[in-house]
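WARN retry 2 of 3 for item q-0093 after timeout on previous attempt; input resubmitted unchanged.
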Amino acid sequence: MSLQAASNPLFAVRDTLRARGLASVAQIAAERQLPVAVVDEILAHWVRRGMAHAVAPQTGGACGSGGCSSCGQCAVPSHSAMLYAWDGPGAAAAPQRPVIALKPAA
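OK item q-0093 returned
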């Protein structure tokens, strides 16, 4: 990790997403020990700059039923289920790590 990333959450989130290739807001927040709201805003910044993009996960339906789409929840993934992929410099060389789905605490 560079000194710049250690002192600036913007670059810390960038480096984490670049290294993972694909990650959720919660995964990055946990790894970098940052509030989820801060990571969400930082990812929005990188998306606006064209350096990252949101990816809807293939979960088989928001309710876990398999994606029947009868309730309308499956058409729009929840914000917490959204994944982000890095498109900026270093994207092609980034290793892909498995994505572990996190469920919100009740």
